[in-house]
Amino acid sequence: MNALRWPIVLRISSLCLALGLETGLRAAPDATGPKSLIASSRRPAHPVLIRNEHNPLLRVIIEAAAGPDVGVDEMSFTLEGTDDPADIESLSLFTTRDKEEFAATQVVGEPVPPKARLTIRTANSLKAGKNVFWLSAKLKTSADLSHRVAAACSAIETTAGRVIPSLSAPGGRQRIGIELRKHQDDGVHTYRIPALATTPRGTLLCVYDMRRRMGRDLQEDIDIGLSRSADAGRTWEPVRVIMDMGEYGGLPQEQNGCSDPGIIVDRETGEIFCFAVWMNGKPGKHQWNGDGSEPGFEIGKSAQFLMVRSTDDGRTWSRPENLTRQLKRAEWWLLAPSPQQGIQLPDGTLVMPVQGRDEQGVPFATLMTSHDHGANWTIGAPAFSGGNECQAVQLGDGSLMLNMRNDHDRFRAVFVTRDLGQTWHSHVTNRKALIEPNCNGSLLRVDYGPARERQHVLLFANPHSQTSRTQHTIQVSFDDGRSWPESHHLLLDEGRGAGYPSLTRIDDEHVGIVYEGSRAHLVFEKLSLEELLKR
Questions:
Q1: Which of 289, 333, 497, 502 could cross-link to 357 by cystine, CB 3.0-4.6 Å?
Q2: DSSP H or E run through 9
Q3: Any idea which residues carry the catalytic annotation?
Q4: What is the pTM assigned to this prediction?
């Protein structure tokens, strides 16, 4: 459907509808307008989510000088640039008084449908100083994930005259996504640590922590959950719990937590493997600190490396298998999966990124591999001391790149192996190209183009910041990770979230991402390769 070309008019009698976020651009009143009022608007850079009750579209700030009371009679809005207004179920107006952060606590008028012209009346007046309002949308469950929404305030009619607000839109039009998991879904306090994969049948599988009682990490009551989509992410089935150690050893659930799921798909057999780390006992401790996990293999002392598998496209899963003695070296304090998707090489070898603590208790990252479709696994040597959560891709020359969270500084550690992780050498970009706030990231190789002209790029997603888990961004490299041009940085969410992302290839034309964003615990978005790769 063509971009929307009609205004939405909201009449407000005393408060200027504030939409958007802050803006560096300011518009003076028009020629006939009041000199005592300045209005600005900002469209926030974050997705608009299906299942979210409130999606901030625009913040409007009206700054009023001290003097006689001024009322707002009418605000006019346009959704020009919105792909399809039918994606929207309703629009609501809120005031946050002089606070710029969105909150759906003080509504101005009733929710209204997205008609060409809407009017909301009120009897309030502007206060001297900053007056903040937000336009918010609720989407229909049928909203198209390829569409975008764009709101703007075209004019504000006040008792002192008309004001034309400026507009800032750092993220452009807002993408439509899905609130995959949020606080208290199915009674779970917090959802974290997503890993996303695609099966040979095109089914999307997202595994994650279900932190049942509170947001904290192990040791706690945490199970591994799975969301499954058979229609490229448009709809998702109810959550499946695929790893739960119950009250093993007579200990309560909060002393039998499983966390940090990793997932890998064997594209030749269709079998799917999910791994997680399990702690038994040790209340109040954490596997990455002190004796939260210890050398050796004993349950209750060393954290355990578990695996479940599915042979029916993720519908049902086996009971957990304990791989600790097969994989972990006795002197290591910890071996755990990396919470990401593994890869399969052209010769069928399965490659899964893993992490741990060595004989000195120092974090490391490496690979585990299988040449027999997951019957047996081999662990490589640590790639980098001081790195942990990691992702692997195969480069154009056949070598494997491991991209790691780096405990030493705010740049990603990047190492390369030519022998499946037995030996490593640093990449030219190691600890100097990709910035991070010490957080998990996601790395994905994408092949595209006709068979005889096949090309590939690398996609990297993380919070693009060295200070906080904000600015969730996808970057593109056309030269096997040697450079990441700013022209191909795609901002998804400027707000603060827990930060962990996971990328997967959906089909020939799309990739999908689940990340811990500012608007939900787990956000799913579907992105076109055309947009990501265009120069």
A1: 333
A2: strand 7-10
A3: 389
A4: 0.93
The per-residue b/e assignment along 387-400, b for 16 or more CB within 10 angstroms, e otherwise, is bbbbbbbbbeeeeb
Instruction: Record the tokens describing residue 478, joined without a space.
Output: 């056309």
Query: Strand (E) positions, 142-221?
Result: 148-149, 152-158, 161-163, 166-168, 174-181, 190-198, 204-211
Q: How far is CA 516 from CA 176, 182, 198, 322, 379, in A?
A: 16, 10, 19, 29, 29
Range of lowest pLDDT (66-80, 94-108, 219-233, 355-369): 66-80
Residues 6 or more apart whose CB falls under 8 angstroms from that of 306 comprise 243, 258, 275, 276, 277, 278, 320, 321, 322, 323
> What pLDDT is attached to residue 117?
67
pLDDT for position 33: 56
Rounded Cα–Cα distance for residues 301 and 436 (Å): 32
113: its two tokens: 């449908």
Residue 535: pLDDT over 80: no
Output the DSSP codes for 204-226: EEEEEEEE-S-S--SSSSEEEEE
Q: What is the pLDDT of residues 128-164, one digit of tens each?
A: 999 999 999 999 999 999 999 999 998 888 899 999 9
Bridge partners of residue 308, in order along the sequence: 274
Do 104 and 90 meet the contact criterion of CB atoms below 8 Å apart? no
Q: CA 186 to CA 158: how far, in whole Å?
A: 46
Which CATH number describes the domain made up of 187-331? 2.120.10.10
Across residues 176-197, what is the average pLDDT?
98
Please state the domain extents for the chain: 7-176, 187-331
Q: How many Å apart are CA 349 and CA 341, to the nearest integer?
A: 14
| 307, 320, 404, 490 from 377: Cα distances, Å | 12, 16, 21, 37
CATH value of 7-176 in 2.60.40.1290, 3.40.50.300, 1.20.210.10, 3.40.350.10: 2.60.40.1290
Helix (H) / strand (E) element for 405: namely strand 400-406
How far is Cα 204 from Cα 183, in angstroms, rounded to an integer?
A: 22
Tokens for 242?
């695929």
Q: How confident is the model at residue 171 (pLDDT cuts 50, 70, 90)?
A: confident
Q: ∠223-517-525 over CA atoms, to 5°? A: 95
Instruction: Kindly compute the dihedral angle of the four CA atoms of residues 431, 433, 434, 438, in this order, to the nearest 10 degrees.
Output: 30
Name the band, by pLDDT with cuts 50, 70 and 90, for residue 5: very low
Q: Which of 316, 238, 308, 315 is nearest to 278 (CA)?
A: 308
When mean pLDDT is compared across 4-13, 123-132, 350-359, 421-430, the lowest value belongs to 4-13
